[in-house]
Automatic annotation (TrEMBL):
Its main location: other. This is Extracellular solute-binding protein family 1. The keyword Signal applies. It is found in: Cell envelope.
Amino acid sequence: MSIEDEYAYIVNERLSPVDFEAAGYPSLQAVYDAYISGVLDPATYKGQLYGLPLELTNWCIYLNKKVFKDVGLDPEKDYPKTWEEMVEVSEKIAVREGEILNRRGFDFRYPYHLVSTVPMVEQLGGKLISDDGKTAIVNDEAWLKFLKFMQEWGPSGKNLGSPTYTNARKLFNKDNNDMGMCLTGLYQQGRIKSDNPDFYNSGEWMVVPFPVFKNAVKDVPAAYYGHYYMVNGQKPKENQQMAWKFVAYMLSHPEEYLAKVNIVQPTVELMKSETYKSMPFSEVFTNDMAKGHIVYYGENSAQIQSHIVEAIQSVMLAGVSPEDALKTLRRKVQEVLDEG
């Protein structure tokens, strides 16, 4: 599970704090020093550290150059820098049979809105939760513009994509001329190489940064998130100690892990290594991550995300107005905050 799902186990005190000695560190501070800044913050609660990261991931845009060239676009110059350009490019790439999209220019990672679409709201000056953690849905204008964008993207608008279609990143690897772009992480490269080595070695794909609205007030890329090794606090102490020793072993070869499965274990040493720097388009992910922030996480973040899913699907698929969808979203997320 990713941290937005794991965090509930931390705050409900179901986990064992990291045993730094069993994990091979001389002190708890040495654990923090080994990782890049901020990456252990989501696993820290009331002064205790409860997890070590298996991976840290952020998402950028993968692009199939052949699809771009098929409609007369130069992928190096014409890739979308803004969400408005994403619409324009996707309209050029789209191939339809009636109302059915046989080729999409791009489509979203629909269940994962905390990572990928809440940052779009933040670009416009909105927030999911106020800084003091008490108020849901900040800046109605930003949220309404975002919901209207998603409404226009869907079947009742420009018909460029929908949560009812196959996940874009699953199609991208196949290189079947049915997907121009998708949103995913560095790990996708390992999957492309495994699924379709000819495409991987073709030079016909590239990675570009997360787009930004033309009138954005902030340059906010997709949020980054982590999957953390955690240990069951209900088990006997000796079992917990052995578990942390096992975790230490699993985290002891990050360069090999990166080279073989394209997963980033975010130690300072790895991020400075030639192994990481030589990964195709690693600089795109690094630059976006430097501008971004960790995904929203809280005791009830999974529940909040489900309400965002409902709001987006309601405007895209059910004919609900953005204004009504926003009212419902605010009420439901506020209830979650108040109950928490």
